[in-house]
């Protein structure tokens, strides 16, 4: 640790930054409250008041990251990685996928993708990876400055892409890369698969300890797992509230508010945030406020969002009274909560991190979609055929056909990309969505 | 001695009473299948296969190996295989395996194999257990339970064939065989029994002749020596095209070729040997090999073989290949070893645009 860095951290983050972000939150809250007081008649309900708090939490995280070099050890991790060990060791965690999603939402991703493409990375690669690699090699900071990693942690439970991507990062930064390899579950998990993940987690500890310069405290690890479990449970409760009619939140609210459960899982303030969010959603239910003013049809969303067209898409659907009430993507950070066991942190992590929806079969995903379509009383399913996410997307043609023909729920594929707007045609997508809505209307 | 075709190999295997397995790329335990009386016939983006049936299941951004492979299994000669083995090589083959198991549900059993993405002790132990699981599945399908002696014998035979493959891939003299002949022979390993492959290689390329070597194209201009990388060189006429441009393939980093040069193993436990063998190949992006390790391996192979440039000839949408290329290019460039990357969509012909780029690369190296 060096003194100037600590001083800069204390002032820039601890003293000035946090206060500025607190003031910004108050300002945002006042603006939202003003919108809430406006006469009704809008297609969409005003933003959730909690979203101001979410913005503060995430901004604070990135601000902390900005000043972290020389003060805290930094680990870059994949979104499905078993981060509890690193959190207990005091690492500041950076999620390049989350940063790339932010770039996508703020329409900065294409610029970073182009940087990567100029360096030779194919446009056929995942746009999250291209955004991140473009940011790294260009040295640009489209959102905020991200500190260099001391350690990389890659878990293959969301895709193999992250393995190739993190090998590129390891080669670039010359820092240790821990790979937690999670065999894909074509069927139920078997003992040797769980043992394999557990053994890797155990072997990761000394590597992480060496980089952290401290020894893992198991009581701290248990606390982190406990906090992560509680936050995941709350997140799931929030999402499940959309089973009410009218749905108090949409999947777009889920996409917007998932930052803390991905990036800050295991932090006490994440629990407080989701408690507040849940209470606000419950107030909407009590007062009969629907996220879409005139909810006529309810739809399930499959796959990642189209970050750069969320506003357009939610507006288009709201005009027709369509509420996207659930998403199997946002659900992924909640549905495994029951498997977490703070008293057996490593063993339970081995099971938990084998079981994300993306590490399970295409048939299992169909099963999840069927269940969600039933629980959330959906009239249709939109499957985002995401050019950048093959594990999520390959299998969708069969899933769509089954949903439509065997389950009797209209379903259609929407061709796009989660971050690269060059792979999206608004006109074409709009036309196809209109046709899909008409199909749902015709079915009554 | 003529190289039998896939059709010949299937007919002979059937006469022998063997079952036929359609096997997707890349790494799998041939010996385990053979010991169970199963002849593997590999499926690598067959260019003559109409991909329509595969296109009906997978988006256009899935690679041709998946779309053509699926079509071959659903609507082509692959319908007649007795079982399907899908190694988990990448996200795309994961999708194919899962869709086969959960939706298409072909009449044949679909088996899977997960190859760990590292070479740690945990990976090695997992692979051994994964191979035992596959062995149990094969036993359930075939009703055969080979003993250790049978497994060791099958492993020994496959390892002898691997040595012939190494002879073909590692000591290439342009004069001994034309590139197309050599790689037709290399690729016959995809479907021929090891015994037949050994006989063929020994007849075509006796060890003595290969070691002696001869200068290529006596009196003529020496060809530009290339290393060929990628997953699979389709169509095979790419070799004729390369030769026609005045170049020769003197080394490869092909998934269907040199990346499967597994080393000899020993030990009392056949499953341990199988695991050791599968983990002994050269660096491979699909197995998570560090990029620096790959770069070092490629540089060494190019130096050894006298290759002056690396032509990476890739099937489109192959993520494991694409991620490594910029950093590999930088490293090779520092060693004054130029690299060209071209992509192809599987078809019976090669796009003129692709040929032009290869030709320009060859001219640059001359």
Q: Overview of this structure, please?
A:
The complex is a heterodimer of chains A (444) and B (366). Chain A is of the alpha/beta class and 444 residues long. Chain A has one domain. Chain A is 56% helix and 9% strand. Chain A contains 19 helices and eight strands. Chain A has helices at residues 3-37, 50-66, 84-88, 96-105, 109-118, 127-138, 161-173, 191-212, 218-240, 251-257, 259-263, 268-287, 310-319, 328-331, 345-352, 362-375, 390-393, 396-407, 426-442; strands at residues 74-77, 92-94, 151-155, 177-180, 297-302, 322-327, 380-386, 411-416. In chain A, the strands form two sheets. In chain A, strands 2-1-3-4 form a four-stranded parallel beta sheet, with helices on both faces. A four-stranded parallel beta sheet of chain A has the order 6-5-7-8, sandwiched between helices. In chain A, strand 5 (297-302), helix 13 (310-319) and strand 6 (322-327) form a beta-alpha-beta unit. By secondary structure, chain B is of the alpha/beta class. Chain B has helices at 6-16, 30-35, 52-55, 64-75, 91-104, 121-142, 148-170, 179-188, 194-204, 207-212, 237-244, 270-278, 291-305, 319-334, 352-365; strands at residues 19-23, 38-42, 83-88, 110-114, 224-230, 247-254, 309-315, 339-344. The model of chain B is unreliable at 211-217 (pLDDT under 50).
Produce a short descriptive summary.
Chain A is of the alpha/beta class and 444 residues long.
Topology (elements, then pairings):
The complex is a heterodimer of chains A (444) and B (366).
Chain A: H1 3-37, H2 50-66, E1 74-77, H3 84-88, E2 92-94, H4 96-105, H5 109-118, H6 127-138, E3 151-155, H7 161-173, E4 177-180, H8 191-212, H9 218-240, H10 251-257, H11 259-263, H12 268-287, E5 297-302, H13 310-319, E6 322-327, H14 328-331, H15 345-352, H16 362-375, E7 380-386, H17 390-393, H18 396-407, E8 411-416, H19 426-442
Helix pairs in contact in A: 1-2, 2-12, 4-6, 5-6, 8-15, 9-12, 16-18
Chain B: H1 6-16, E1 19-23, H2 30-35, E2 38-42, H3 52-55, H4 64-75, E3 83-88, H5 91-104, E4 110-114, H6 121-142, H7 148-170, H8 179-188, H9 194-204, H10 207-212, E5 224-230, H11 237-244, E6 247-254, H12 270-278, H13 291-305, E7 309-315, H14 319-334, E8 339-344, H15 352-365
Parallel strand pairs in B: 1-2, 1-3, 3-4, 5-6, 5-7, 7-8
């Amino acid at each position: 640790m060096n003194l100037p860095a600590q001083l800069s951290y204390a002032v820039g983050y601890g003293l000035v930054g946090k206060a500025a972000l607190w003031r910004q939150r108050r300002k945002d809250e006042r603006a939202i409250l003003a919108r809430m007081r406006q006469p009704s008649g809008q297609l969409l309900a005003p933003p959730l008041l909690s979203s101001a708090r979410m913005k503060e939490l995430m901004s604070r995280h990135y601000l902390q990251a900005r000043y972290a070099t020389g003060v805290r050890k930094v680990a870059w991790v994949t979104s499905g990685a078993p981060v509890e060990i690193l959190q207990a060791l005091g690492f500041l965690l950076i999620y390049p996928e989350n940063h790339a999603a932010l770039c996508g939402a703020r329409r900065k991703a294409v610029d970073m993708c182009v940087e990567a493409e100029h360096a030779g990375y194919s446009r056929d690669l995942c746009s999250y990876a291209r955004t991140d690699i473009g940011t790294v090699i260009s040295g640009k900071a489209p959102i905020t400055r991200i500190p260099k990693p001391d350690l990389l942690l890659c878990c293959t439970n969301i895709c193999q892409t992250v393995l190739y991507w993190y090998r590129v990062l390891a080669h670039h930064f010359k820092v240790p890369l821990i790979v937690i390899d999670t065999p894909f579950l074509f069927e139920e998990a078997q003992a040797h698969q769980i043992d394999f993940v557990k053994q890797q987690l155990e072997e990761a500890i000394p590597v992480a300890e060496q980089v952290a310069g401290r020894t893992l405290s198991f009581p701290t690890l248990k606390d982190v797992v406990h906090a992560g479990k509680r936050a995941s449970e709350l997140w799931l409760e929030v999402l499940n509230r959309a089973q009410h009619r009218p749905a108090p939140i949409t999947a777009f609210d889920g996409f917007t508010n998932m930052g803390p459960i991905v990036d800050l899982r295991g932090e006490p303030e994440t629990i407080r945030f989701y408690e507040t969010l849940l209470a606000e959603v419950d107030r909407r239910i009590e007062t009969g406020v629907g996220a879409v003013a005139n909810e006529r049809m309810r739809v399930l969303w499959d796959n990642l969002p189209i970050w750069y067209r969320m506003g357009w898409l939610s507006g288009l659907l709201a005009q027709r009274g369509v509420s996207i009430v659930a998403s199997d993507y946002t659900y992924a950070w909640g549905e495994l909560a029951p498997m977490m066991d703070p008293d057996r942190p490593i063993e339970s992590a081995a099971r938990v991190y084998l079981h994300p929806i993306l590490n399970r079969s295409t048939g299992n995903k169909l099963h999840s979609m069927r269940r969600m379509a039933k629980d959330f009383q959906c009239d249709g399913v939109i499957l985002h055929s995401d050019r950048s996410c093959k594990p999520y997307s390959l299998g969708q043609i069969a899933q769509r056909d089954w949903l439509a023909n065997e389950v009797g729920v209209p379903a259609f594929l929407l061709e796009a990309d989660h971050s690269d707007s060059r792979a999206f045609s608004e006109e074409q997508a709009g036309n196809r969505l209109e046709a899909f809505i008409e199909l749902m209307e015709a079915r009554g | 001695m003529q190289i039998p075709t896939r059709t010949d190999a299937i007919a002979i295997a059937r006469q022998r009473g063997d079952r036929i397995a359609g096997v997707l790329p890349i790494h799998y335990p041939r010996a385990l299948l053979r010991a169970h009386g199963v002849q593997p016939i590999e499926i690598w983006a067959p260019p003559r296969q109409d991909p329509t049936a595969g296109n009906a299941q997978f988006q256009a951004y899935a690679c041709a190996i998946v779309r053509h492979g699926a079509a071959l299994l659903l609507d082509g000669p692959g319908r007649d295989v007795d079982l399907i083995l899908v190694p988990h090589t990448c996200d795309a083959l994961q999708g194919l395996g899962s869709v086969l198991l959960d939706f298409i549900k072909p009449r044949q059993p679909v088996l899977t194999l997960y190859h760990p993405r590292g070479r740690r002790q945990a990976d090695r132990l997992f692979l051994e257990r994964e191979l035992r699981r596959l062995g149990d599945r094969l036993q359930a399908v075939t009703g055969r339970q080979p003993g250790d002696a049978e497994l060791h014998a099958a492993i020994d035979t496959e390892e002898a064939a691997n040595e012939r493959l190494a002879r073909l891939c590692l000591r290439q003299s342009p004069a001994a065989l034309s590139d197309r002949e050599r790689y037709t022979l290399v690729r016959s390993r995809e479907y021929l029994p090891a015994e037949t492959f050994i006989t063929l290689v020994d007849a075509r390329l006796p060890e003595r002749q290969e070691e002696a070597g001869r200068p290529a194209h006596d009196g003529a201009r020496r060809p530009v020596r290339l290393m060929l990388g990628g997953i699979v060189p389709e169509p095979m006429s790419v070799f004729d095209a390369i030769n026609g441009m005045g170049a020769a393939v003197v080394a490869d980093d092909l998934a269907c070729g040199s990346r499967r040069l597994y080393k000899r193993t020993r030990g009392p436990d056949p499953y341990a040997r199988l695991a050791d063998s599968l983990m002994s190949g050269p660096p491979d992006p699909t197995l998570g090999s560090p990029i620096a390790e790959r770069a070092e391996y490629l540089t060494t192979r190019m130096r050894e073989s006298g290759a002056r440039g690396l032509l990476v000839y890739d099937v489109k949408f192959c993520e494991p290949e694409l991620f490594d290329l910029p950093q590999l290019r930088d490293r090779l460039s520092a060693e004054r070893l130029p690299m060209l990357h071209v992509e192809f969509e599987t078809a019976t012909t090669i796009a003129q645009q692709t040929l032009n780029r290869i030709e320009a690369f060859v001219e640059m190296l001359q």
